[in-house]
Amino acid sequence: MNLKRLLLMVLFFFSISFFIPRTSKAVDLQDVLTSEDSIVVKIQEGIEYFFAFRIEKKVEVLEKHAEKRLVRAQGYAEEGNNEKVQNSLQNYLQIKEKQNNLLGKTNDGDVLGAVTERTIEQQKTIEVIKTKIDVDVKQQVIQVQEQVVNQVAERIVEVNGSEGQTEFFQKVEHVWAPGTGPGGESGVVIEGGTMQFAPGTSAGGTSGADIQNVVVESGEGSGGGSETTVVEGGN
Fold first, then answer.
1. How many CA atoms lie within 13 A of 194 on its CB side?
2. Cα 166–168–170 angle (5° rounding)?
3. Strands 214-220 and 194-197, how do they pair?
4. DSSP states along the chain
5. pLDDT (tens digit per residue) in 50-80
6. So what's the pLDDT on residue 210?
7. How far is it between the farthest Cα atoms of the chain?
8. How does pLDDT run across 9-32, given as a tens digit for each residue?
9. From the CB of residue 165, how many other CB atoms can be counted at a distance below 10 Å?
10. How far apart are the first and last CA of the chain?
11. How far apart are CA 15 and CA 91, in angstroms?
12. How far, in Å, CA of 115 to CA of 46, rounded?
């Protein structure tokens, strides 16, 4: 975004702010100012992202924008508006994908660690949303979870290796299947380089989503060749 375009966006934003109060009878002002589809919100977020000059700061800004979508999605779920829940979560996914692309440009472990922790917390919000929506919408929400979790997991492998990824998967699974945390009777078991889930507790069941297969190159094996570890989901 160049400076000329930014200035035009700022001017447009202030122009809208003058006209909206006069037409508030036909438009819900609160929705105009907070909806993720609102041009006002898009301009505000675009300006905030533009002035976050460092990659680390841009990642942080995108995290805030993503979480705003989850808050909106939860509100729509409470209202029973399944269509808007889907729209908000798709928007959330798009922001997380943009953030993931930025993470590919930095090896800062602290930045990735912050994203990892926030992504786990976001799963808790999504789990609440899933209890309040229709079954067909729930399946689409699960797909969003899978995509976000797996793309973060891929970044973790690049920075922290397969052990960091396994720990991340365990924490996510604990959210997706409450009460089945790592090391518990029904928890995640690491055996022979494969992540396994006890019957009835995998994220592919009624309590969560699927962790997709991720191939991890883990260095040389005992025979001197390259050793490959496959982390598999519950299906």
1. 8
2. 70
3. unpaired
4. --HHHHHHHHHHHHHHHHHGGGGTTTS-HHHHHH-TT-HHHHHHHHHHHHT--SHHHHHHHHHHHHHHHHHHHHHHHHHT-HHHHHHHHHHHHHHHHHHHHHHTT---HHHHHHHHHHHHHHHHHHHHHHTTS-HHHHHHHHHHHHHHHHHHHHHHHHHHHHHHHHHHHHHHHHHHSTT--TTSTTSEEEETTEEEE-TT-STTSTT--PPPPEEEEEEE-TTSSEEEEEE----
5. 998 899 999 999 999 999 999 999 999 999 9
6. 53
7. 76
8. 555 555 554 444 444 444 455 555
9. 24
10. 44
11. 26
12. 20
Burial class (CB in 10 A: 0-12, 13-18, 19+), 211: buried
191 torsion bin: left (phi>0), alpha (psi -120 to 50), beta (else): beta
Tokens representing 185 are 């009777």
Nearest C-alpha neighbor of 91 from the set 32, 41, 33: 41
pLDDT at 215: 46
Question: Which amino acid makes up residue 146?
Answer: E
User: CB–CB of 177/113 below 8 Å?
Assistant: no
Beta strand 214-220 with 226-231 is antiparallel
Give me 45's structure tokens.
């977020």
What is the identity of the amino acid at 148?
A: V
Cβ contacts of 116 within 8 Å, gap of 6 or more: 152, 156, 168
List, as one string, the DSSP characters of 150-205.
HHHHHHHHHHHHHHHHHHHHHHHHHHHSTT--TTSTTSEEEETTEEEE-TT-STTS
